[in-house]
Write a structure and sequence with these properties.
Layout: E1 6-7, H1 12-21, E2 24-27, E3 34-35, E4 38-39, H2 43-52, E5 56-61, H3 68-77, E6 87-89, H4 90-102, E7 110-114, H5 117-125, E8 130-132, H6 144-151, E9 160-165, H7 173-184, E10 188-191, E11 197-200, E12 203-206, H8 208-219, E13 224-225, H9 231-241, E14 248-252, H10 255-264, E15 269-273, H11 281-284, E16 294-296
Parallel strand pairs: 1-16, 2-5, 2-14, 5-6, 7-8, 7-9, 9-10, 10-13, 14-15, 15-16
Antiparallel strand pairs: 3-4, 11-12
This protein binds 4-phospho-D-erythronate and magnesium ion.
Length: 304
């Protein structure tokens, strides 16, 4: 059984020793920096402190509703200076995977998107054709004619080769019905991420993983998930920054995405923050599957 994590909150010497160990900090976003549009107090000061001590900060989010450019706007609007290169979001890693790794031959390489604008922006920037997503024509109830047109294929695009499911605040029966038809016709099943919940407004909402469950249930297929803890994302981050993994620390609020991401990535450290999804009871149980190296009650404890 992995040793229990060291609690850093209130322990200045331990915090200093912790910070000195690492050159690079990978920061999760939802549940660590902010909850929805609410920035946690002390976040800006903590990032400034780490940067003032020469630490590299990289933002790694599973939230596919926004593109990297959108996140840059959000970070900047919250007083966190950054640049697009420091931001890795699951919509971006999904677009990269489709355009540079899968490289399905045309014409059957279109993507049916279940998700928001972030996915569309990143697919567009990689020159990947898509449909569905935020298309207003699909934001409606299914009609009797739809059943007929879906069944006879007239409502389907024969060049769809991939179904990509992410967090969709406008999910409905029609989109799920179309998604199923494409998968049943052999399209590859991808997910930006499989987080079951989204922490926001101090409670939880359906996560991307809960959006793709109906399709998993209907097809019996598990999608390839491209967000944390997928190491495809870690490899692309390392590929960009060429950092020493032993000198890097993953900071996150969720054990089965963030902390697992850091552990599977063989990073030098993982820090759990208790302002989001996971609770310390989850790693205190016998044979807990994922145990972080360190934890704090809130991120600002590092600069408190
Ligand atoms: O449902 C989701 O997509 C997740 O809850 C959300 O994306 C988590 O974002 P992160 O904590 O990785 O920033
Ligand atoms: Mg999070």
């Amino acid at each position: 059984m992995a040793p229990l994590p060291k609690h850093l909150t209130g322990d200045k010497a331990a915090i200093d020793e912790f910070i000195n160990q690492f050159d690079v900090f990978l920061f999760d976003c939802d549940g660590v920096l902010w909850s929805g549009d609410h920035l946690f107090p002390g976040t800006v000061e903590t990032l400034e402190l780490l940067r003032s001590r020469g630490k590299k900060t990289i933002f790694v989010t599973n939230n596919s509703t926004k593109s990297r450019a959108d996140y840059l706007k959000k970070l900047t609007s919250m007083g966190i200076p950054s640049n697009v290169d420091e931001i890795f979001a699951s919509a971006y890693s999904s677009a990269i995977y489709i355009s540079r790794i899968m490289k399905l031959p045309a014409p059957k390489n279109k993507v049916f998107v279940i998700g928001e604008a972030g996915i569309e922006t990143e697919l567009r920037s990689e020159g990947v054709e898509f449909l569905g997503g935020t298309d207003p024509a699909l934001r409606r109830d299914i009609t009797p004619e739809d059943y007929t047109n879906i069944a006879n294929g007239s409502m389907l695009d024969e060049n769809v080769g991939i179904v990509l499911a992410g967090l969709d605040f406008h999910i409905n029966y029609l989109k799920l019905s179309l998604g199923y038809q494409y998968l049943a016709r052999g399209a590859k099943f991808l997910a930006t991420n499989l987080d079951s919940t989204l922490p926001s407004a101090k409670t939880f909402f359906p996560g991307a993983g809960s959006i793709s469950v109906p399709l998993i249930n209907m097809t019996g297929q598990q999608p390839i998930a491209l967000g944390k803890p997928s190491q495809a994302m870690m490899d692309s981050i390392e590929g960009k920054f060429h950092f020493d993994r032993k000198k890097a620390c993953m900071v996150g609020d969720r054990l089965d995405t963030d902390i697992q991401f850091g552990l599977e990535g063989k990073l030098g450290g993982t820090l759990a923050v208790l302002t989001g999804v996971s609770r310390k009871e989850q790693w205190e149980v016998e044979d807990a599957p994922v145990v972080p190296h360190y934890y704090v009650d809130k991120l600002s404890d590092l600069s408190g």
